[in-house]
């Protein structure tokens, strides 16, 4: 176990300076933030990772929260997922709101770890609750999350010791420490904060591989000082996830540990949101969706080996579900993703994905273009189902050299739209995942 002296030494090495991260990612790392009232954050090294790398994060509310979460659909769900599901089910049945803590370790997923894994998830939760009680004297329950290698047992004694000594604060640097401690193959910490009227939100997420929209697609927590009832927080989260964390894909793999949680503590002293038809709820739901739609794409920007950030936008669908289905077919196509990596304007691959998405189409009405991220003139590729020939290969090459590119498809069947966020598939993705455990 680490001595107090060693913990202090490692803490001094734990920098949140953005300059330590890749130069092309630093623009996504906030230098300041406005954080929700009543929440505290922190991160540290407890001994899961080697060389003193941050591997333990904690978030704490100074009062009870309404908590909601969505989880992976992978049947080999990790021990933390199983524990959190049970905890939230029990709090709903009891009408309790004493979930105040989120504890996250990186470096070990605690997945496919049998009965011992469940015991370790419980031990993490109990240690988190006890750390909160030591700080403010209030009883607390904790959600737990783990990320890293599957099939290895947690060094639970080190983790519990780290939790017992975890320092927490409300400054931007404290939140940054928590974000850095989430990282595994991530190349930069993913932290976002926003203010909407008198309500504040802050979110931390992590992910770079095993990202696919089949529930939550990674780890993430959003904290808000809004006051909202349990049913309406559940409703708002489902709406927001469908338009954010379930609208991203990197490699088509749905992890065993995927979890997105939202904690609302009401510390803004705003009026309780309790009517689903009210203006206040509609605004809150939209604010949460917009916030999470800014947070989730940070994961795609850090896709393992990625060189392109690709937005797929499908307009003119009969329903949101139809638009999402077409966008997902494009975003998850390996042929489309490799074409973008090779900067090859092989638009037939995109149109092919539209056609096999499983949504009824009038192919004589479909338009398609690629839109450069720098705001310059788009390149029209298909109009009313007809190819726009000859393709301006020079203009296509200019657009495909850019880091940000949008694929825009117009179905001309209705008024609904959806977006997916994805990246290209490169040689480096194979290299990173070929020796992940080393």
TrEMBL record:
Chain positions of site Involved in the stabilization of negative charge on the oxyanion by the formation of the oxyanion hole: 147-148
Processing after translation: The alpha and beta chains are autoproteolytically processed from a single precursor protein within the mitochondrion.
Keywords: Acyltransferase, Amino-acid biosynthesis, Arginine biosynthesis, Autocatalytic cleavage, Mitochondrion, Multifunctional enzyme, Transferase
Keyword check for Mitochondrion: yes
Cross-referenced Gene3D superfamilies: ArgJ beta chain, C-terminal domain, L-amino peptidase D-ALA esterase/amidase
PANTHER family, A to Z: ARGININE BIOSYNTHESIS BIFUNCTIONAL PROTEIN ARGJ, ARGININE BIOSYNTHESIS BIFUNCTIONAL PROTEIN ARGJ, MITOCHONDRIAL
Biological function: Catalyzes two activities which are involved in the cyclic version of arginine biosynthesis: the synthesis of acetylglutamate from glutamate and acetyl-CoA, and of ornithine by transacetylation between acetylornithine and glutamate.
Subunit structure: Heterodimer of an alpha and a beta chain.
Family membership noted in the UniProt record: Belongs to the ArgJ family.
Protein name as annotated: Arginine biosynthesis bifunctional protein ArgJ, mitochondrial
Organism whose genome encodes this protein: Linderina pennispora
């Amino acid at each position: 176990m680490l001595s107090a002296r060693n913990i202090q030494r490692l803490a001094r090495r734990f920098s949140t300076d953005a300059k330590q991260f890749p130069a092309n990612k630093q623009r996504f790392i906030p230098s300041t933030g406005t954080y929700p009232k009543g929440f505290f954050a922190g991160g540290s090294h407890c001994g899961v990772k080697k060389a003193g790398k941050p591997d333990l994060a904690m978030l704490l509310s100074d009062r009870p929260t309404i908590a909601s979460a969505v989880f992976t659909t992978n049947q080999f769900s990790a021990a933390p997922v199983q524990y959190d599901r049970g905890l939230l089910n029990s709090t709903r049945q009891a009408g309790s709101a004493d979930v105040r803590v989120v504890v996250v370790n990186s470096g070990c997923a605690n997945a496919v770890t049998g009965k011992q894994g469940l015991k370790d998830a419980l031990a993490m939760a109990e240690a988190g609750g006890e750390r909160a009680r030591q700080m403010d004297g209030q009883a607390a329950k904790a959600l737990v999350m783990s990320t890293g290698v599957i099939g290895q047992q947690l060094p639970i004694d080190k983790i519990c010791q780290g939790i017992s000594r975890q320092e927490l604060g409300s400054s931007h640097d404290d939140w940054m420490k928590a974000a850095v401690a989430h990282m595994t193959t991530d190349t930069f910490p993913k932290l976002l904060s926003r203010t909407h009227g008198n309500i504040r939100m802050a979110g931390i997420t992590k992910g770079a591989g095993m990202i696919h929209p089949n529930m939550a697609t990674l780890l993430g927590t959003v904290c808000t000082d809004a006051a909202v009832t349990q049913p309406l927080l559940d409703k708002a989260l489902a709406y927001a996830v469908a338009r954010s964390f379930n609208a991203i894909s990197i490699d088509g793999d749905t992890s065993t540990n995927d979890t997105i949680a939202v904690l609302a503590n009401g510390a803004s002293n705003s009026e309780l949101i309790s009517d689903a038809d009210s203006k206040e709820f509609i605004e809150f739901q939209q604010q949460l969706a917009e916030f999470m739609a800014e947070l989730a794409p940070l994961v795609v920007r850090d896709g393992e080996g990625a060189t392109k950030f690709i937005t797929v936008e499908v307009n003119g669908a009969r329903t949101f579900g139809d638009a999402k289905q077409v966008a997902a077919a494009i975003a998850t196509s390996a042929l489309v993703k490799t074409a973008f990596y090779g900067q090859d304007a092989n638009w037939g691959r995109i149109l092919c994905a539209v056609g096999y998405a499983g949504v009824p189409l009038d192919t004589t009405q479909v338009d398609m273009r690629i839109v450069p991220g720098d705001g310059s003139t788009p390149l029209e590729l298909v109009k009313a189902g007809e190819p726009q020939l000859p393709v301006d290969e020079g203009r296509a090459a200019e657009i495909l050299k850019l880091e940000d590119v949008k694929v825009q498809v117009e179905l001309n069947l209705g008024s609904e739209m959806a977006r997916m966020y994805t990246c290209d598939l490169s040689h480096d993705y194979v290299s990173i995942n070929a020796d992940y455990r080393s």
